[in-house]
UniProtKB/TrEMBL annotation:
<feature type="compositionally biased region" description="Polar residues">
    <location>
        <begin position="1"/>
        <end position="12"/>
    </location>
</feature>
<dbReference type="InterPro" id="IPR001810">
    <property type="entry name" value="F-box_dom"/>
</dbReference>
<feature type="domain" description="F-box">
    <location>
        <begin position="67"/>
        <end position="116"/>
    </location>
</feature>
<protein>
    <recommendedName>
        <fullName>F-box domain-containing protein</fullName>
    </recommendedName>
</protein>
<feature type="compositionally biased region" description="Polar residues">
    <location>
        <begin position="662"/>
        <end position="671"/>
    </location>
</feature>
<dbReference type="Pfam" id="PF00646">
    <property type="entry name" value="F-box"/>
</dbReference>
<feature type="compositionally biased region" description="Basic and acidic residues">
    <location>
        <begin position="17"/>
        <end position="32"/>
    </location>
</feature>
<dbReference type="InterPro" id="IPR036047">
    <property type="entry name" value="F-box-like_dom_sf"/>
</dbReference>
<feature type="region of interest" description="Disordered">
    <location>
        <begin position="1"/>
        <end position="52"/>
    </location>
</feature>
<feature type="region of interest" description="Disordered">
    <location>
        <begin position="651"/>
        <end position="686"/>
    </location>
</feature>
Length: 686
């Protein structure tokens, strides 16, 4: 007859009473798994009324622990259950109660630990100097032996587990950073690397050094070599096992990291799916947003995404999506604004390409503010094409340019009145100085002057028109404004002296009057220390440096020799040809605009000017009579820099030199612009 359940339970309870740890194999100090010490209940000081209320409350029945039934389970059943657990589970069970601790740490439970260890794939075999609980503690526990902080460090050679703070604490006396040379080859060592230093941190175990020192002191000389060999062999075995354990720990850490990454990715995909269902699918195509969501603290978690977690998370993620959406729309609008500005600048450049130099037309950034262009550029929705509208409005460009010139002329007249001059822009004294580049410009060429200044402005959707203008400024220089110029008193006095030197009245002489003289002036300052005379045109004399040519009548002298004037003009033509070759060959200079002498349109030096002369004027060879210097750029200081005239130079010698230089200039020009040969061949064919 089978025994009753009551008899079995009685037998089990009797067995539990007889279980005691074997004193010769007590593992209570082998790992930090001691059960926590029960703290004494803290007495609360209460008044009598509170005490009476407490006494009146009914006593609640104490709940039994989850593992309380374990003590009533037969040993063979318990061992079978424990054998299917992981070593870490056994460690944690041994810390739950004194009975389980006594049961799991006795010698007869070794087989349970062994079978649990064999359940772990890839775990190195048990070292000879460790027992099962200590090995399980080193391999699976995550807490420091000293301070119980979480740590990833395991000192396998020491058979200890200390965190970095405890390793570096000198008060413990367990570790040192250097070892005596006598034991340097067989003292256990632990090292780890950090990003702040190149060499690893090394720690040596002080208890091991003490044992070696005590053993070595009792050795005789003839026993020393054998003892050293024994210790070296033992340390080699210890190192081999330590490397195996470290390799297994590293692989486990990587596998665990991969598992956690998979869980985080699954949670992230669920978040993306929910956001897409809410209508944020277009934003999910933004890489920056995807990265921000992936590494967000609420998303980058290993726990599964629950409905409760999503409610908490959505209130934080939605504002992020709204911000990214606003940024995306802003970038999209920025692109459209830049395309609009480029389209207008390109269309305006094509429309004004064949416009003569005079009358001067505004630049693209100025024309964009004029009607009807401002309405087309700024009032038309950005998603509509304005190409046809700009073509239709092109016929109104001359009228708009005339209105622009009229407005700017009023600003310049106000500057002349402020300087005490007659507000007549046709006067030869109508010179204006740029406040930015200090360039001196004469009317009407001052309207074509632009300083190469750059503007930097942030893009705001509500103020995109300003950004479009600034973008065109970057492409075609800053807008023209009379406030950028002043009437310089030193320059005014210099112009008046030059006009008087040429024999005209500065109060009434006009620009046309001075040009009709076709005279040259001599700079006395430049000529007084040389055997030659420095001769220049009157506009060039105005550009001379302030300190070099002060505004005094005795500084300038009129070249009244007819033969000398012919020689100067011949030298100017030679200098002009050499300058063209330089401009056509240098890429950074070839963008300067030159004036076609035949139709007064502007073209760049080199291929641009040569194509124009051939296609429009049927000119195959560029000569100095076919173009003139630019008048609106800073480089126009090269315009007749002045020539040095020797008093005894003969015009005949200049003429022969001019022919030789003309031939060399043409050869250089052909080398700088290789595409001129097809023009010549085409002309010969005709």
């Amino acid at each position: 007859m089978a025994p009753s359940c009551r008899s079995q339970n009685a037998t089990s309870r009797k067995t539990r009473k007889n279980i005691e740890p074997e004193p010769e194999y007590d593992h209570s100090k082998d790992y930090t798994g001691e059960a926590p010490v029960k703290k004494k209940a803290r007495a609360n000081k209460v008044n009598k009324d509170a005490e009476n209320i407490t006494r009146a409350l009914p006593k609640r029945r104490r709940l039994r622990g989850i593992l309380q039934k374990v003590t009533e389970t037969p040993l063979d059943v318990l061992f079978e259950i424990f054998s299917n657990l992981d070593p870490l589970d056994l460690l944690q069970l041994s810390r739950t109660s004194k009975d389980l601790r006594a049961l799991l740490l006795q010698r007869s439970s070794t087989s349970v630990w062994k079978r649990a260890r064999e359940n772990v794939e890839g775990l190195p075999p048990l070292p000879d100097d460790l027992d099962e609980p200590k090995f399980a503690y080193l391999a699976f526990d995550k807490h420091c032996t000293n301070c119980l902080r979480a740590t990833k460090f395991v000192q396998w050679e020491f058979r200890t587990k200390y965190c970095r703070k405890c390793l570096e604490a000198s008060a413990s006396g367990l570790f040192i950073r250097a070892v005596p040379d006598t034991f340097s080859g067989y003292v256990p060592m632990f090292e780890f690397r950090t990003a702040d230093r190149k060499d690893p941190h090394r720690y040596y175990y002080v208890p091991a050094i003490k044992v070696l020192r005590e053993e070595s002191e009792s050795l005789r000389d003839e026993m020393w070599d054998a003892w050293v060999s024994e210790k070296r062999a033992a340390y080699s075995t210890l190192q081999t096992n330590a490397r195996l354990c470290e390799g297994w720990s590293t692989r486990c850490a990587k596998d665990r990291a991969n598992e956690l990454d998979i869980l985080r990715d699954q949670r992230f995909e669920k978040v993306i799916e929910r956001l897409t269902n809410l209508g944020w699918g277009e934003e999910m195509q933004t890489p920056n947003l995807i990265d921000e969501l992936r590494y967000h603290r609420l998303v980058r978690q290993t726990r599964p995404l629950t409905e409760r977690a999503w409610v908490t998370m959505s209130g934080t993620l939605i504002p992020i999506l709204e911000r990214h959406k606003a940024d995306r729309l802003k970038r999209k609008m920025n692109i459209r604004v830049v395309e609009r500005a480029r389209l207008f600048a390109s269309a305006y450049s094509d429309a004004t390409r064949d416009v003569p130099l005079l009358p001067i037309f505004p630049k693209a950034v100025d024309a964009a503010l004029l009607e009807p262009f401002s309405k087309i550029v700024f009032d038309t929705p950005l998603d509509q094409d304005i190409t046809e509208s700009l073509k239709a409005a092109g016929i109104r460009l001359p009228k708009a340019a005339a209105e622009w010139r009229k407005k700017q002329d009023s600003g310049l007249r106000a500057l002349m009145e402020k300087a005490g001059l007659k507000p007549d822009l046709n006067l030869a004294t109508a010179f204006f100085s740029c406040n930015y580049c200090r360039r001196v410009c004469q009317y009407p060429y001052v309207l074509a002057h632009r300083c190469k200044l750059s503007y930097s402005v942030s893009f705001y959707p509500e103020d995109w028109k300003t950004y479009a203008l600034m973008y065109m400024c970057r492409e075609t220089n800053v807008p023209w404004s009379a406030s950028q110029y002043t009437v310089n008193g030193e320059i005014l006095r210099r112009v008046q002296c030059i006009i008087q030197t040429c024999g005209l009245n500065p109060e009434t002489a006009t620009y046309e009057d001075m040009n009709s003289l076709d005279c040259r002036v001599i700079c006395v300052n430049c000529s007084q220390f040389s055997t030659t005379e420095f001769v220049m045109q009157w506009q060039t004399a105005v550009q001379r440096h302030y300190d070099h040519s002060p505004a005094r009548p005795n500084v300038w002298k009129l070249l009244d020799d007819a033969e000398g004037l012919k020689c100067v003009k011949a030298l100017e033509k030679l200098d002009k040809r050499a300058g063209y070759v330089r401009y056509a060959s240098e890429s950074f200079l070839s963008q300067e605009k030159f004036i076609c002498s035949h139709c007064k349109v502007l073209r760049c030096a080199g291929r641009d000017l040569e194509d124009h002369l051939f296609e429009v004027h049927n000119i195959t060879r560029v000569s100095s009579d076919d173009w003139d210097w630019p008048v609106n750029m800073a480089s126009c200081v090269d315009n007749g820099k002045g020539v040095s005239l020797h008093p005894h130079i003969e015009e005949k010698s200049i003429g022969s030199e001019e022919n030789d230089n003309a031939k060399s200039t043409v050869d250089s020009n052909e080398a700088a612009s290789a595409d001129s040969e097809p023009h010549t061949a085409k002309a010969n064919a005709n």
